[in-house]
Amino acid sequence: MPSASSTYIAASANRAPTSACRLSDGLVAFGSGHFVALWHSSDERSAGVHATLPGHQGDVTALKFLQTHLQPSRYFVSGDSAGVVRLWEEQQDGQWTTSAVLTGHTQSISALAILELPQGQGQQTDLLVLSGGSEGAIQAWRVSAAGAELLQKIDLKGKIPLEMAMSLLPDSSSIVLAVGSTETRIQIFSTTTTDKIDFTKALSLEGHSDWVLLASGSQDNYIRLWRFSRLSHQTTAPPTPTTTGLEALDELERALDAPLEDTGAGELRVKAHDWRLVGDGEFSCSAEAVLLGHDAWVTGLHWAPRPMDDPNAPAPLQLLSASADRSMILWTPEESAVDPSSSTAPTKASIWTSARRFGEFSSATNLGFFGALWGTMGRSVLASGWGGSWHVWRCKEEEEDLENAEWEPVVAVAGHFAAVKSVQWEPEGEYLLSAGSDMSTRLHAPWRRSTDGQDLETWHELGRPQIHGYPLASIAFTSRVQFVSGADEKIVRVFDAPKVFVSSARKLSGVELGDEESRPMAADVPPLGLSNRAIANTAEAEQLVPDSKDPFDQLLPVNFTVESHPPFEEQLLGSTLWPETEKLYGHGFELIALHSAHALPIIATACKATSSEHAVIRLFDSNTWKPIPGQQPLEGHALTITSLKFSRDDRWLLSTSRDRTWRLFERRGDAYVPAASAKSHARIIWDGCWAAEDSFFATASRDKTVKVWTLPSASASAAEWSCAATLKFEEAATAVAAAVLPKQSTHILAVGLENGMIRLLTAPFAEPSTWTPFLTLDASLAHVLTVTSLDFSPKAFPDGRLRLASGSDDRSVRIIDIAP
User: Fold this and answer.
1) Name one GO biological process term (predicted).
2) Considering Cα of 230, then 236, then 242, then 247, what sign does the dihedral take?
3) Which pLDDT score is estimated for 134?
4) Which one of 67, 194, 519, 535 is least enclosed by Cβ atoms within 10 Å?
5) What is the pLDDT of residues 346-374, one digit of tens each?
6) Which fold has domain 14-155?
7) Cα–Cα distances in angstroms (integers) from residue 240 to residues 202, 243, 431, 558, in the given order
């Protein structure tokens, strides 16, 4: 039976403090566009994202795992920009499925919290799920085997909840809820669990001077610690206060406005504030400490996890924070403030210090961190960056003192932060290039090495050849070490591989790309420029460093070292550019499509067009980078040309267009001339492709069909191309690619659809008019939004499998292996 498996998924994290969470066993779940990506961050193989979970109809904005102490959690919740919350449960086979869908919010989900409700022995687990919406409301749900029940709606009076945290109160089964929102106070709610859950407001904690992001980090750059404790074990209803509830609340808020007292002993104290929970006694909240170390908004806080080898041991008293200042800080209290008999809390308001600072300070394009997640056993830390890539630091295994230990960066996960518009394999299929609307091209290649006597191959991003000033639309390799790109500008840019990449490809992937010494060392982008300039050697790089006393300016702009591992995010941002060698002009509007001939030194380009005047194809000589002498622009289309494809023997050039026509141009002598055309689709034709041996071509259209076109014989004239098959689908066909199943001598056609699915069909060599379904790649293996580009690898594998690369509007790049 034919099968398909995921080899590589490049995906970036959404830009939100709450859009990622992590389990104690190393599993990270993070929002990436419309799906949830799963990544075993503690995997020593550095295999990256291993699965994605479809289901959301908007960008995932919040995620939370159910926190458990004795075993890894089997539940997490995710919320999206459409206002929908999904509860995910892990099945026995390790797969995650949706067990409940919670609706009711009218705007984006901004915060989530989940807690396991106390149950009697032998009773099934009930979960309490709280969701905060941008409309300024919190919904409380009980989720059980019987279904989901909405318990309560809490109106926040127009304030947007940005983060929520729930916990059981000390020595109690009652629940306390802390809500940080778009105000300077932290709102504290509480409820008992003996009867119907009903959260009531208990306190408002003052102190921050800007929006609170997490209890309790804020946009005022401060972190505040708050201590909750039980004052009494009284379980009956206390006497009614002499003041009304609102008056008592106002009195507490006025008291909390009072400044902190300086005791003269190096301690900051504040009066404790108490509240009564009907049926469960009195509790107290007091300020523990104020931490200042970040220079910008605090975007994430997490306490250190409990040790995995001893789940009953208390968690170490360590706090990890992330900030928009491009740093993470590991905080610990002074030893004198900690009770030796307990590591769960200081004995008094204490002074906390910055024990370790992590960051990527030499990268001007890294605009901050989100998340601040702990790794396995607290020996690694993780955060996502402004561009969606992950940053990981790990403590060396032999180190026991985490505060004074040596931490080192680790290979992590990266991906495009906007729609992927084009993917293409290099001519021999050893590595893949992708272009996206995030103004970058990214080069994906295998990391081949031997580990414990076994050969291991994992795929990673090995370079960002172009970090552009415009959203990219199309790319094409002209050789193994050169490509051209078109973007939302009128220029085609040409890039050549530098020595650093050629050396890295040889060392990491085992791929020989020819002479290294004649190439420039690397490239960088000059200030206020868009063209990558070549850097010949280290001496030239040193001359480019600005004359400044600022220590950050003294760092070299490029790292020339060829490491034994894939580059980290900081290196990808500035040290993997390719020199730009040429610019091609001629088009009047944004570039949309381009393609390179296979054997001839020719590239074809087309731009956006609203009239036939600009809907032309221009041909350039890739040896001289000038228009081909005597070759006039190819006319015929009336609107934007959406794709260009040369046949394998370069005899034909196929173009498809928004005007619902395809056109063929045939090479006669030294020029291409119009040869055939047809208006056979009812809607836009998005893409076209050629068979491996040019026996047919296919066109994919918004009219939900793919049509296969053939010639009756090899000697037939160009005008005799006719439709041999019409393949119908449930969604618009947006991308198409063809290959051959070598062991079966059959054609295979991959069709990407508007809903993200990929359909695979086969046909015998002798009958390209007869197509049968082969495989369907659904949203769990393929994409969740429009498939924009497909390309089969030309590399032949001994076991006969095919390798398919795909790009999508869902921002992911995927490599899928297909076994016949």
Assistant:
1) tRNA wobble uridine modification
2) positive
3) 95
4) 194
5) 444 467 888 888 886 655 556 788 888 88
6) Methylamine Dehydrogenase; Chain H (2.130.10)
7) 15, 8, 73, 69
